[in-house]
Design brief:
eight-stranded parallel barrel, alpha/beta, TIM Barrel, eight-stranded mixed beta sheet, Enzyme I, Chain A, domain 2
């Protein structure tokens, strides 16, 4: 039966459409189980009925015509209970209803299995037997497994409009859910892209000439660097100068010691260039894959993209130029930045990927280019959408395939509204973030891309509220020297001077190991990370602090931030080390100054010690992403529990208030630097609480500024007061949506205004 299951699953996955998939299921399941009938009923919730969609054994003319009221009969009971029902004689069951149109009155044995996707019952797979029969446990498991295989096909059919054509009764079209990566509305036709070379398929092979093999690898790297330069040259017409930093980041990763030296050492050890490259890329990507931080984890895709590009040149493969439609929706399972750059900007209407998130380089590039994007659209069958019309809702991460006239018309209207909103936001550039009653709340930038020559949002921000220092450590084969670190920090400090730059000390360990400093932990979320590892290795911490202090000489715009603090003892120890580095540098003749030092509030323990922490440092900065995860015990990147992650949870709001209360007792300022800071909805809450500044990604600066300039601080306090009376996150969100609509800004968080 296991072999039958494998073959049927393969056939279903290769089916060209839902009708064929249903036909395969009913025919093959009937044969495998030895039943007399196999049928599929699908639930039509909009019209409150179960519809017979396929059968092998009942009258074929009943397909599409037999429709049960939702909840009626044994089909209804299977759907309600969301679990299988196995009966020797269905006719004796109180819920049994005989449907003469199908000819089923001759049958007794009954097995019904629910077809479930994301907790919703989409339909029922039914087996019937003329004689009395109780189906075996293996048979029930077999049928349940095949029912689950149908769920994805049914979901796609609803979205693409295929199910509408099968039913021919005009039920509303569905969308495929994903992650919002770049706001906007994109309407066009799908062009599917795929990796140009398959690294995983490369075997190990001993080369005849090691020196020649090494030179071939170096040649391929040079050619990829040339490709990057050409793509950057083509794209710079449509990007701001600061957006082009993404190509600098790719160049640095391409030329990193880990990639070059790692591959060359494997070649010298006796593997040919493609095999050595495969192992180097796998090792490097594995480090990023293991990270909890979504931004850093997305770098694994960049590493693999580079590996594929190098392999393509090693294999001397010339790809046929892709013909792009006038309104191209670029679709793929893992799209690279270079594939986006290959599309003429005037033809690129949207980007859709089945993997990734808004923090991937693809998402960042899409935002920089102003292209709507949805990532992580996992239900999209990429192989079946080439040439289909698509709508990308970048606000909500929704994708519509083959939209009907009503959906298309509505999104065309929303796209026009969106264009007007974008034009309106640009008018806010360089204006202060002042409320209507004269209160100013500075908006800072979260940054830290490798080799950013000019970070996104540099002109618009009041400075840097969070500069991540991890990536320059990760792309190397050893800890960077004090001089190398100082050069990097000096660049960003000079770039923003005299505006303040808050540099977070090294936040590695546990979920973010370095390739040359491996760690293996059973539970990295609660492991050796952040301040814990740097205090255990003061030589690492002191080197970094010395580099930062030296970089700030003559600029005096530096602020230091300590990550993952959970005890006051950690702060005391860190402050002593910072003072030690400061004193040592003075003794060595460097004219350094002691910078303001702050603490990141990311764990619940720090919330309850906010007052004690504020007594010791100069400011507090709240990392709402980690704080929310720890408070709610939810990994937001885990699809099974991601729905539970919500920054509007009453516990999160009360934690923020407690932090502010503790800081206020000692006159210390509080900044918010998590995703909540860049959410226009949350602006009401944070402004009402009295947060002193917000730090966010570049794409959120103007949207948040628009909210601030449209409301008073008094109004924000009123909204906060009502929000604190709510008992669940959904109620808080609805309140904030109403508040945003009241000032005419609903279009900031959804298409249309």
């Amino acid at each position: 039966m296991l072999e039958s299951l494998r073959r049927i699953v393969q056939e279903v996955n290769n089916a060209r459409d839902l009708e064929q998939a249903l036909s395969i299921i009913v025919r093959r399941v009937k044969q495998a189980v030895g039943a007399d009938v196999c049928s599929v009923y699908l639930n039509d919730y909009d019209n409150h009925r179960h519809i017979l969609h396929a059968t092998d054994g009942l009258r074929l003319d009943a397909v599409g015509r037999v429709r049960l009221e939702l909840g009626r009969g044994l089909i209804g009971q299977v759907s309600e209970r969301a679990e299988p029902i196995n009966l020797d004689d269905a006719a004796n069951h109180p819920r049994y209803e005989c449907i003469t149109d199908t000819g089923e009155e001759r049958y007794h044995g009954f097995l019904g299995a629910p077809i479930i996707q994301n907790r919703k019952v989409l339909g029922v797979l039914v087996l019937r037997q003329r004689q009395r029969r109780h189906f075996g446990e293996d048979e029930v498991t077999f049928v349940m497994t095949l029912a689950s295989q149908l769920a994805g096909a049914i979901t796609f059919a609803r979205t693409s409009g295929e199910l509408v054509r099968l039913q021919d009764d005009g039920i509303p079209q569905r969308f495929l859910p994903g992650l919002a990566a770049s706001p906007g509305i994109g309407i066009g036709h799908a062009v599917v892209v795929y990796p140009p070379a398959d690294l995983d398929a490369v075997p190990d092979r001993r080369p005849e000439d090691l020196d020649a093999e090494a030179e071939e690898f170096r040649r391929a790297v040079r050619e990829v660097a040339g490709d990057l330069d050409r793509f950057a040259s083509r794209t710079q017409v449509h990007l701001r100068v600061e957006d082009m930093a993404l190509f600098d980041a790719w160049r640095l990763m391409l030329e990193s010691d880990t990639l070059i030296d790692g591959t060359l050492s494997r070649i010298r050890a006796g593997n040919w260039a493609p095999g050595a490259l495969r192992e180097t890329i796998a090792d490097h990507a594995r480090v990023f894959d293991a990270m909890d931080d979504a931004y850093l984890r997305e770098r694994a895709s960049d590493v693999r993209d580079l590996g594929r590009c190098i392999l393509m040149h090693l294999q001397n493969r010339d790809t046929t130029p892709i013909q792009y439609a006038s309104h191209t929706i670029l679709v793929g399972e893992e799209i690279s930045a270079m594939q986006i750059a290959d599309v003429p900007r005037e033809k690129l209407a949207g980007v859709v990927s089945t993997t990734g998130s808004g923090s991937s380089h693809v998402g960042i590039l899409a935002r920089g280019m102003g292209v709507p994007a949805a990532m992580g659209v996992s239900d999209l069958p990429v192989s079946r959408v080439e040439g289909r019309e698509m709508v990308v809702d970048g606000y909500r991460g929704r994708v519509y395939v083959s939209p009907g006239p009503a959906v298309r018309s509505e999104y065309q209207r929303l796209a026009a509204d969106d264009a007007a909103l974008t034009s309106e936001l640009q008018a806010l550039s360089h204006l202060p973030a002042d409320t209507t009653d004269g209160y100013t709340i500075p908006l800072y930038l979260n940054t830290g891309l490798v080799s950013e020559s000019r970070p996104l949002g540099i002109e618009e921000s009041a400075g840097v509220g969070l500069y991540r220092t991890e990536l320059p450590f990760i792309v190397r084969d050893s800890f960077p020297s004090e001089a190398a670190q100082m050069s990097n920090y000096r660049h960003v400090l000079e770039l923003f001077a005299p505006r303040p730059v808050t540099i977070r000390t090294l936040d590695i360990g546990g979920d973010k190991p370095l390739p040359y400093f491996p760690m293996h932990e059973a539970n990295p979320f609660l492991g050796w990370r952040g301040i814990r590892i740097t205090l255990d290795h003061p030589e690492i911490f002191l080197t970094q602090v010395r580099a930062v202090l030296r970089a700030a000489i003559g600029l005096d715009n530096l602020q230091l931030l300590l990550p993952m603090v959970s005890t006051v003892g950690e702060v005391d120890d860190a402050l002593l080390l910072i003072q030690r580095a400061h004193d040592e540098l003075l003794e060595e003749g460097y004219q350094v100054r002691m910078p303001p030092v702050g603490v990141m509030i990311e764990v619940p323990a720090a919330v309850y010690q906010a007052e004690a922490l504020a007594r010791r440092v100069d400011f507090l900065s709240v990392g709402t992403n980690d704080l929310t995860q720890y408070l709610l015990a939810v990994d937001r990147n885990n699809p099974h529990v991601a729905k539970l992650y919500n920054e509007y949870h009453p516990a999160v709001l009360r934690a923020l208030l407690q932090i502010l209360t503790g800081a206020r007792l000692h006159g210390k300022e509080v900044s918010v630097c998590g995703e909540m800071a860049g959410d226009p909805l949350a602006t009401f809450l944070l402004l009402g609480m009295g947060v002193h500044s917000l730090s966010m990604g570049a794409g959120s600066l103007l949207r948040v500024k628009k909210v601030i300039r449209s409301i008073s601080r008094a109004r924000a306090r009123e909204v906060l007061k009502v929000a604190l009376q709510c008992e669940d996150a959904g109620s808080v969100r609805r309140l904030l949506l109403d508040a945003l609509e009241t000032v005419g800004l609903g279009g900031l968080v959804r298409p249309g205004r």
